[in-house]
Amino acid sequence: MFGKKSEALAVESVSQFVDDKKNASAEARRCTIVAKSSVFKGDIDVEGDIQIWGKVIGNIRVKEGAIRIMHAGRVEGELSAPEIIIDGDVEGTCCAATLDILEHGELRGISRCSSMSIKRGGLFFGQSEQVENKTASERVVPIKDTNNDKSKDKATVKTSA
């Protein structure tokens, strides 16, 4: 008699925990997909990941996540995200912290990133600009006047930390 009630409570609490965990993981894995046979013209702004299997003519901006150009994907425009993975064709500018060009990937344009890798078979035609990581902040260092007043700041110089 008592065992059945406690089992029912345990099963109910476990099922609530599993449902909450599924909802949290679905929120964390939010992904937008442009299908293989589709053509999208215009700008795309998303907060999660995006996978491009079709063709996009326009700019793609991702705030938190990655842009993945799949093997059949093609993009003409500017890509901006923390992480960009190219396994298809891109013509334009890529701005990212990390940029990976995979075996079937091809980038024609400008690469602005702090870390870039090209796998064997991947192609890059264009200009590469290394961008320093945003976590490295600039410091302002005061220059003291050694002749008259040592506590008086005369000028400041910006240096990278």
TrEMBL record:
Pfam families: Bactofilin. InterPro entries: BacA/B (IPR007607). Residues 131-161 are annotated as: Disordered. Residues 146-161 have a biased composition (Basic and acidic residues). Belongs to the bactofilin family. This is Protein CcmA, bactofilin family. It comes from Photorhabdus luminescens (Xenorhabdus luminescens). The lineage of its organism: Bacteria, Pseudomonadati, Pseudomonadota, Gammaproteobacteria, Enterobacterales.
